[in-house]
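Please produce the structure of this protein holding uracil.
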Amino acid sequence: MTSIMTHPDHSTIEQTRETLRALRWVLSGHAMSGLQEWHRASRSPVFAAEPVGTDTRSEDPAQGLMLAREELGDCRRCRLHTSRTQIVFGDGSAAARLVFVGEAPGFEEDRQGRPFVGRAGQLLNKTLAQIHLKREDVYIANVIKHRPPENRDPLPEELSACRPYLLQQIQIIEPKIIVTLGRFSMMLFLPDAKISRDHGRPRWVVWQGKKVLVVPLFHPAAALRNPAVMRDFNTDMLKLPDIIAALNTNLLPTDEVITPPVAQETTPSEDQLTLL
Ligand code: URA
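Below is the modeled complex.
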C-alpha cells in the first residue's frame, strides 16, 4: 500500500533502472540474432535457385575471400611491401552482415598476420563483447593491408594500390552495415564527413550498386590515447544493437542516400584485379 503513496526511494529507482538496462540488453541480443537470421534469409535464395549439381563456389563468400587472398598473392604493388613482415588481409566471418574497416596493421598485426590483435584490437574485442558479438560474428579488414613504417599515415599511392582489394572483400561479403574505424576508412565511404561531428551517426551509402548503412566511429587507438574519445567510442559502439534493430525493422529513415565518388571510380572489374 505504502509503496504507491510514497515516493520510491533511491535504491528502488536504481533497481528499476538496472532491470530496464538488463531488459534492453536482452532485446539487443534479439536484434543481433535478427542480424544473423536476416543474413541467412538474404543469401539462401541465391543458393536455392541453383540447380542441384551446379558449381556454386562463386556464390560462396568464404571461397570468394580465399580466391581474393590468393589473387593478392605476395603483394608488391606499393613500397610498403619492403618493410612489412606479412600481409594482413582480413579476419572473421565471410557471411557477416557487419563489417568493420580499420586503417592499417600495426606492429602486432604485422607480426601475427591478423587485423586488430594489438591494444586497439583488445579494446575492439571488449566492446564487441559488451554488445554480445564475437569477432567470429563480424568481418574485420583494413583499408591498407601492409603495416606502414612506424605506423605512419598511409600515402595516397598506397591507399589506391590497396583499395581494390578492400572493395573486393566488401563485394564478396555484401554486408548490410559497414562500421568505419578512424578517418581513412570513413573518408572512403563518407568523403564529406567529419569524424568529430559525424561519429556514431549512421548514413546510407550506395556502395558498389547496393545500399549499405555506414556508421563512422573513432579509431580504437585514438580512444586509447584520449579519454574523451574513449567515451565517444564506447557510446557509439553501444548504439550498434539499436541501429541493427532499426535496420531489421525498417525503422531507419532512408531519405538521405549518398554515393561516394570514389566507390564509382575505383570499383575494380575482374580484369582490373588481375592486372593489378
Ligand atoms: N589499427 C588498424 O587500423 N588496424 C589494425 O588492424 C590494427 C590497428
